[in-house]
């Protein structure tokens, strides 16, 4: 399957991915409702997008008591709105912090790869987010180790 | 002859086991389910109570689904005896069912505080679907509801009661609320939040008796004034349903003693869910969790093993979350470990609290409180779970988190938690979607 490959060194922190994602997922241009989240590193001198890695276990999916999380046609874990009751069990089962809950609709929501045409990847002007047929991976770990060295030194 | 599997109990553990048997087996087996109730999810009953879902939504397998899965179901029946030497069980209608292997997943029942009047009219438990129906019929806008007990179960229905327009008073015998889910600081914050939202909380209050007065309920206390209300809900605890197993050689401690494959002391008898004393992921000791996610993991592992796989159980993590009037309250792992190194922080300007606990440089427990609308709270809930579950070495990030418990994300990412988590699966293979369970041809 294709997944979102993240290239943190190319991210400029422009947040276009968050706008595109929130519009696609909730119909609102509202970064707070985006399921791809851009984080600053090293005092806002570099940035990285972060989203659901579409893990093999699918902790959100197996935790759901009513079978409201399924695997969609492109292989992404996806919430079925008419089945979700809003119990939030998926938000504590997901160990990546990539399950979201909309208080307005009382439903959980997450990255579903936009059904195969991810809006974030299309919106990114620097190709920091690409949609590729590769195995999912920890795209940010090495980058974060390098770009947090100063912050960490201060914490000691 | 095809293997004959017997599943006793149609709750979370039992239904996950049945689905997993069908996913994992190489040859079609025979599955018999004995369940006192039609299979449904207790987790979603609060949403039935507040009428945001129809009753039909609570069922996890209809008769048609069970037939599709090729399950012979004895619903509304209970097992009265297990003859492990003959590998057969007897039902309350006299039927005998022989098996090759069997899963005990009979769950828990609500228990009421032993006070006079606790079994009287207008006094309810909220645990089973039948009990939920009883409560729904009684609560009207303007009703005064008194909840006896301030534990997790009580808090799962708090929002529902309020959204029905009822007035709510919570009465707790202990000096504080949520004793098994969060610490004193967290509990005090939640109690203050409840007061702000018009919910009266009376802690350290021992109910002496419940009387019926002109169709209303009067609660008398060991000390302090009476309370008069319309509906009493007793959320005073649960107990495992194991009495029927008395006299069998299946070894029971706090729950059924199981090995790392979730087999009981009788090799062809498994146990899962609330009745099983499985392994706790953090302490690596046997423990009865009695929570939904543990029942689900137990059920899947037993299902795979009944289907002939040899899946080892590495242990489950205690995870709990309740939403209290748009405040998320969650805890993970050994949040109450007095021997752990801990750091905590309360935000002065908003209802937000974090407590992180370490053994060495690994996070072993966490408590998190924050507004549901705060997206960073929601993200951090999951990341804290990931840090505790993965047990990644935090190295110098430990000192950072102790100073900055509200900034979890850089530590999560730079500790390469994702790398540790991605290969982890409960069954050693990618999970299948709920709709992908093979059906009988």
Walk me through what this model shows:
The complex is a heterodimer of chains A (156) and B (441). Helices cover 26% and strands 19% of the residues of chain A. Chain A is α+β, with helices and mostly antiparallel strands. The N and C termini of chain A lie far apart (42 Å). The longest helix of chain A is centred in the first third of the chain and has 11 residues. The mean pLDDT of chain A is 95. Chain B has 3 domains: 180 residues, FAD/NAD(P)-binding domain (3-Layer(bba) Sandwich), CATH 3.50.50.60; 116 residues, FAD/NAD(P)-binding domain (3-Layer(bba) Sandwich), CATH 3.50.50.60; 96 residues, FAD/NAD-linked reductase, C-terminal dimerisation domain (Enolase-like, domain 1). In chain B, strand 13 and strand 14 form a beta hairpin. The mean pLDDT of chain B is 95. At the A-B interface, strand 2, helix 2, strand 4, helix 3 and helix 5 of A face helix 8, strand 22, strand 23, helix 9 and helix 10 of B.
Shape of chain B: globular
Number of strands of chain A: 8
Strands side by side in the biggest sheet of chain B? 3-2-1-7-19
Query: Which pair of protein chains has the largest interface, and what are the residue counts?
Result: A-B, 54 and 67 residues
What would you call the shape of chain A? Answer: globular
> How many separate structural domains of chain B?
3
For the terminal residues of chain B, how far apart are their CA atoms? Answer: 18 Å
Mean pLDDT of chain A, to the nearest integer, reads 95
- Give the strand tally of chain B: 26
- Quaternary status of these chains? heterodimer
In round numbers, the mean pLDDT of chain B is: 95
Percentage beta strand of chain A = 15-25%
Given the structure, what is the number of helices of chain A?
Answer: 6
Biggest β-sheet strands, sense, barrel of chain A: 2 strands, antiparallel
